[in-house]
Amino acid sequence: MLSVENLRAGYGETEVLSGISLDVEEGEIVTLVGRNGVGKTTTLRSITGALEPTAGTVRYDGEDVTGLSPVETARRGLALVPEERRVFPGLTVRENLSVGALGGGDSAFRRDVDSVLDTFENLRERQDNRGTDLSGGEQQMLSIARALVCGADVLLLDEPTEGLAPLIVERVADLVEELNEEGITVLLVEQNVAVALDLADRAFLLDQSGIVFEGSPEELRDDEETMDRHLGISL
Hints:
By secondary structure, the protein is an alpha/beta fold. The protein has a single domain, classed as Rossmann fold (3-Layer(aba) Sandwich). Helices cover 37% and strands 26% of the residues. It contains ten helices and ten strands. Strands 6-7-8-3-9-10 form a six-stranded mixed beta sheet, with helices on both faces. The protein has a four-stranded antiparallel beta sheet with strand order 2-1-4-5, with helices on one face. Helix 3 runs parallel beside helix 6. The longest helix is centred in the C-terminal third of the chain and has 16 residues. The model has no long low-confidence stretch (mean pLDDT 90).
């Protein structure tokens, strides 16, 4: 579904990604974990075209999409839910979703605004509230909902639980699992490693030297040396 090969990218003279490779099969939840600053967000931005890679290839559903704009990758079904959420603060929940519906493609998973509001009951209750009136958890839900009306085949989630209360973290995790069960493929960047490994079918561990682990969540949990060396934690 999604293949990244020898990807290099950075900002100005600073190279952040030095030739990483990873793949995501259709219907999977794949997580990319690593310490802060190793390039997880840069990877997502390079996949969607928000940042143009300096080398390497990104293929989506067999098509070379390397360097395409975010508009073009969204039309193909790649939807980034950014760490900052980026809801429109002055627009209502319904208006935020209506704007999202203007982009994207004709994915089988594309939903209309009312269908999404049926899934996100808390957003339906607050559909006339502006973005600035929402809690952090509600803004995260709105950001994910916006990707659905855009027609996401693949959700690229960047730190979806950051800054959220434990109960809301659990709700977001349940939502990701529900969407995946409906057929949406997920590439998850998540600082909460326990949540990421609970959700994922496969895991990649990124360090400054590149991908240092690829395997099942269970294998990564059991590899205490790798967990300690590259994440500074044990589970």
